[in-house]
Design a protein that fits this description.
Number of strands: 5
Number of helices: 8
Structural class: alpha/beta
Order of helices and strands: EHEHHEHEHHEHH
Distance between the termini: 23 Å
Shape: globular
Amino acid sequence: MPSAAACYAIVVMGVSGSGKSTIGAALAARLGCQFLEGDAFHTPHSVAKMRAGQPLDDQDRWPWLDRVAASLRDTADSDGVAVGACSALKRIYRDRLSRMAGIPLLFVFLDTTDQDELSRRLAHRSGHYMPTSLIASQLDTLEKPQPDERALTLAAGLSPDRACDVALDWILRERPVHDEERLGRAV
């Protein structure tokens, strides 16, 4: 088990349809660590609300963010690093994730405002509850990471391989520990 000081997590963030799960899973595979799907931490009530086309409010989001943060922390405590997908649309959500996780978090923001592309992606996603009608509310809610946040911004249209290459280069520079063996295998 790694020391707590050596643990950190990467959160792939952005609006629904931006590619968080695809990029997050690919990053986790390259790092040889677990991938945590943020959508799996929503309550049935929140899923039903979104499925009905109602955006979540902060009262829905706080306990969800806390569950995501706890899982990131527990996984990183066990494995040294974890990768999760979480919309983390507002700065206060990213701050909450960081505070509740209690370990350093690095954010990889998949940036896009192309509603047509996001709608196309959501329409072709099978078995997911997020309707295309909520894209506009997510874009309205989005607060892009600021320069003082530990965040990398990537165009959501990059191929998964290219996005992982760029993200891993950045992670090598930004991670709070020097885990050359793990990342040496990943690069």
